[in-house]
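Example protein as discussed:

>
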Amino acid sequence: MPHLTLEVSGNLAHVVDPMLAAVTDACQQSGHFDQAVIMSRAVIQDRYCVRQQGMSAFANLCLRIRPGRNDEARAQVAQRLAHAVHRVMLDHGVATPTCITCEIQEIDVRSRALIYAGEG
């Protein structure tokens, strides 16, 4: 069950919903999570500071997945997700200089708890 968190600076809040839909679709279409339930969420940061080569906004993706994918596969998924954010920005005419980053983290399944609440 991949967990995807999209974190954006407040000046990108107006495109966070299409970004979230695009990165969730990109994750699903990557071919690595065919039968998985993908849980995505977005966090908008109202207080932020970006100090990197003229950038004034950020979009950071963190995808937490189960172990088993090699470095190349994880890098491909990271690129796919970052490009999905960029495409949404282009499609919506966002010209704000933005730093887009993506990190893939492996979940330690030995110390993970899973509960399905609400099931009878």
Summary: The chain is about 30% helix and 25% strand. The helical segments are 16-29, 71-91. The longest strand covers residues 57-65. The mean pLDDT is 91.
